[in-house]
Amino acid sequence: MKKAQAFRDIARLVINGMIKEQMDARDPDAPKGYVTAYLQHRHELLKQGKDNEGSFTIERLQANTMNLLLEGTVTVSSTITSFLEELSKHPDVQETAQKELDSVVGRDRLLSTEDKQNLPYLDATIQELCRIATPNLITRFCSNLKETRIDGYLIPSRSLICANLASVHFDPEIFPNPQKFDPKRFLDEHGKRITRNAHYAFGLGKRSCLGEALAEVEMFLVIGSILQNFRVAPGNKKGTLKFLQRE
């Protein structure tokens, strides 16, 4: 907990410094990132007197940027680490994905998002990793303003509510033999990717993860690039991994 708080404090200092630097510079030719765009829009609203309610405050910019940093980098990196740990237990799956990568991409160029449609087994492997190895097996907590009933169950007002993703991911009626790691769950008899809406690694409903599309791209590129060049194996110590150069 203390380490997490220390990291958050450091991240806040970095973010606040970056925002102050952008505010002081006010360079119209500066790279158009989120902070720059936010500040420019805020400046225009203030000039026009249209931000009376303070929608575009510096405090909100700080909070939004912190969320982008933590949710967009830390969460994805921890998820990929969890996925690689699971993948290290399945050399046969790695070998099949690597054969597909070799035939489609080769080893002389970088993997790109355009390759995804031609790599159904790799894509299915990542989907199965999302099902069986996602580190978050419950959604974030929400609360209801009014008392309500769902399927006959009374939910008092101001209850803390979350969805149990594990109950879906490991439901044998949806995924036979759910403890088995099997990317073929997401492939048809011809080896083509099929869409299944049964795993909710990014949550569900209108409060699902806003960065789902970006995270899926990052996972595809990172895991695919690692498998393109390395074999992942368990390390000598618990919780560690070895990346062995492919021959």
TrEMBL record:
Entry's InterPro entries?
Answer: Cyt_P450, Cyt_P450_CS, Cyt_P450_E_grp-I, Cyt_P450_sf, Cytochrome_P450_fam2
Any Gene Ontology biological process:
xenobiotic metabolic process
Which cofactor does this sequence's record say it needs?
A: heme
Is the keyword Heme assigned to this protein?
yes
Residues annotated as binding heme are C209
The cross-references to Gene3D superfamilies, in alphabetical order and at most eight, read: Cytochrome P450
Q: Name one GO molecular function term.
A: iron ion binding
Which ranges form a coiled coil? none
Does the record's keyword annotation contain Oxidoreductase? yes
Q: Name one Pfam family in it.
A: p450
Quote the cellular component terms of the Gene Ontology held in the record.
Answer: cytoplasm
Q: Which UniProt keywords apply?
A: Heme, Iron, Metal-binding, Monooxygenase, Oxidoreductase
State the similarity comment.
Answer: Belongs to the cytochrome P450 family.
Identify this protein by name. Cytochrome P450 2H2
The gene it comes from is CYP2H2
